[in-house]
Amino acid sequence: MPIVHFFTHTFLFKRCAVRGLSKVPAAVFALALIAGTTFTGVKQSTAAESSGSKGTIALSLKTITNDDFQKALADAVKAKTESMGYTFLLVTAGEQTAVSTQVNQVEDLIAKKVTGIVLNPMDGNAVVPVLGKARDAGIPVVIVDSPVAKGHDDLYITFVGTDNFNAGMQAGKQMVQALGNKGKVLVVRGANGSVAGDNRVDGFKKGLEGSGVMIAGEQPGNWTNSVAMQVTENMLQANKDVQGLFSASDVMLDGILEALSDANRKGIVIISVDGSHKAVDLLAAGEIYGTMAQFPQKIGSLAVEKLVSVIENKSAANSIPKVIDSGTMLYSKDNLDEAKKQMF
Amino acid sequence: MGQRVGRILFSLLGVAALAAAGLLVPHFLTPANLLNVVRQSSIIGIGAVGMTMVIVILGIDLSIAGLIALCPMVSGLLMLQGVPIVISIVAGIIAGIGMGLFNGLMVAKLDVPPFITTLVVGQVSQGLALIMNNGRSIGGFPASYVHIGNGSFLGIPVSDLLLLVMMGIGIFITQFTPTGNRIYALGGNETVVRQEGINVDGLKLFVYAFSGFCASIAGILLSAQLDTVHPIQGDPYLLDTIAACVIGGVSLAGGEGRVAMAVGGALIIGSVRNVLDLLGVHPFFQNVLVGTIIILVVFGSGLSRYRRTVPV
Amino acid sequence: MRGIIQHALKNGSAVILVLLVLVGIVFVRNFASVDNAAVIVRQSAIPAIAVLGMTMVLMIGGIDLSLGFVVGLASTATGFMAKVWGLPVDLTVAATVLIGALVGLVNGAIIQYMKVPSFITTLGTGYILYGISQLVSAGNVITRLPPSLLAVGRTDLLGLPTSVYIAVGIIALGWFLIHRSVFGRALSAFGFNSRAAFLSGLSTARVNVLTYVLCSSLAALAGLLLTIRVNAAQPNMGGGVFTFEIITAAIVGGTSLFGGVGSVIGSLFGVLIIKVIENCINLMNISYHLYLAVQGGIILTVIVMDKIRSRAA
To answer: Which structural domains are found in chain B, ordered by start?
Structure first.
């Protein structure tokens, strides 16, 4: 049967291509689209660029979809950029895994001759060559959120961000405290290959060191609710006796909570990372124990401030500290008011 | 005769399209940017050389994403241990060819659908790349390796030269060797080819192994460009490579498609993304536009071809 | 009933599933419990709905790469309609499925009338849908959906949520449609030899377009139910990963990429096979980096064994 099928299929679809004019319409369409794009105003650059803007500051991230933190960061950078008289340009790689896409995009930014770049590297090593190109082109760069590999200090002005390892470690220590120094916890990781996620979990493990708390299961939640829900469901099946759960980010909490409620598990101590308003709401409702806050508004604002001060020659690049830690703290039911003020 | 006219016309139109883009899109037509575009497209292009042959014989190779991560991870780890660069690179290439051979074996001897075997091999390769360095990326390679990705030779970026070399190899195999003829024949009608006593299994093994080879080169080049091996760096390249082939006229129904055209398809994809970046198009809109452009380009190139009556 | 059993036995995937379950019971701690079985069933219900649509598309020799992105769009739409605009539940459900149908219509039209291969068409529309989802939602996730909406998928009946029963109903309908109706025969005919089918009077245009409409509608329904299941409407739900999982399930279940051959029951077993494997990986706490690799390895072993078995037969 398969042979006959194969035969008829290929017999049917074999044809002689008339190649002559085949590519003409393709090129024409591509052209038309490029032209159309230019004129339909889907560009981000507003009139501001042509009328008195001091230049363009571009922000390069992985994605702002389903990522409150990155979104808050982008909003903060935009607000500060525009308030200082520059045009804001957002560039995202679009996926959680598109490391080389980000590099390509930064190269394109250099070709576009932007005035300054704020960069959240998807991979601290991969951006090194392109940072060199930016430096050669005279475009100053500030790094946010995720650090560049060690030994390349000359390639950027400063790094502003949360220390993810530290945040994880603090979470671990809090977990030990909350569980009375004994018990089992589950860990829901981020996507494989995510540096921030890995750092948080590594930090969490460090925070548990020397205590009576053990990790009974750890699986990747891929930063999405549906996957986080599935792996939590499964891990709960294997572990009837669990007292705590650590999530590498607030974005997976919805799925995790649904899994817990479906399995009828109550009273589990849940700690997460980010400090988004979603988590604060859950905190207020008593559904999670705590979340390690990040301060994207502060990060974004500071980053632009430092960048502009170098662009406008108001400070020398090497007078600015190389690392600016934007800090972290635990939001719990004990400091809800403060959490509500700072959350993003 | 018509084909040569077609190709000349294509090149002329390509030039016209470039000129138009140059007028409409600021910074596009600068030498630096154009070289960037070719460099950025070279990874897809090299992958497309191998993918073309696989698609021609009615197969598909979904493993290239995993191989673009695994092969340079192998080379990279060796290089960081002090193993000479050439040996390290050869080791990475062997890994790619090995996986490709496995694919070929599954397809040829066990009749496993190429979709499944290459998908799985890709996932296994990906998993290996993650395990080998515990999910971390590696970087800081010897300067001569990084030079491959970022340097120039006689004024032309080495990446571009590598693309040309791979394309040349692909063209040579497909257009100037009996193997090439057989590959196209196989894609056209497997039964007849078998009847003629040609070693079909051997052909399939070769094609998949060659695709693995191309993927390994693409991955090793990418890591040279980035001076990094990120364990999941291959993900964006899978669909783009297949799309490049289809845009370049490689038919998913098998039996036809030129390597050179597939590389052209890769350049088109690279240029489109570059143009969208240069125009500052909002990321959400970029997705919409890329999708539309892909459909329209293939539509346009299919307009004057004889198409089977009932499309799928 | 006997026909169904016979049919299932002929299908290699049934045997494989049984074998996997046995291995799981013997070797994997905590696998063999009613609770765990219920978990697996719950996790399989929604992909089963989606795989039905993909099976149909594969049977006519096509492919739908936009499936995962239809899920994301449906999720976004559901969130908006139910929470932001506060529309009544039945309207939300109907509108979401309708959106899916429209996407399928566009896919089908481009494939049929513009003659662009399904691979490219659905790849392109997938990108477009992803962009639209992001634009509409501005990248945000909508949570805490109205209880009236959640009740559609989550009402408990004999220990299982309603979404499972919905899935069963749809699979049953799908089975009749594909294996016992004129449309189903048309699908096979189209897939085997579309030109012959055309010449013999079959309205291939209608079959072609209708198949994609059905596939995307089912994907939209799956997206709606998934949104209800996790109680979160997000634009990047599903995506390429989901699409590939569904295609793998269909192929493991015996559907051929070349068309003409497809089995609803087989695809259902394909989904169960994948979910059982994932469940075991989580239960055994296999290293998170090896997750995909182990899953892939098992699937390949499963298929190879099936091939060897059918050779020996």
So the answer is: 33-302 (1.10.3470)
